[in-house]
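Hey,
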Amino acid sequence: MILIDGIAVLATGNFYGWHYGSATAVGWIEIILSLIMMGIAYYYKKSPAAVGWSVVILAFITMPFDGGFWTIGAWIAVIGGAIIATAKS
């Protein structure tokens, strides 16, 4: 959802709710951080806890750039990352 929000913001030049930065900054930051989250998933087998906590941290960083409904994507990433990080193997 974070990636979709970033693409939508860049495509329309609009965003809803309170944000840091311009539409361009918001869009690119959301896209870059969400792609990083997807990229670190490759290392899940080696270190699930590190991947989980990394996703949590990156999701918290995206929250000031999300607005309204789209914040739910960041919260889902936080919850999922915390579950992965604290799960027993």
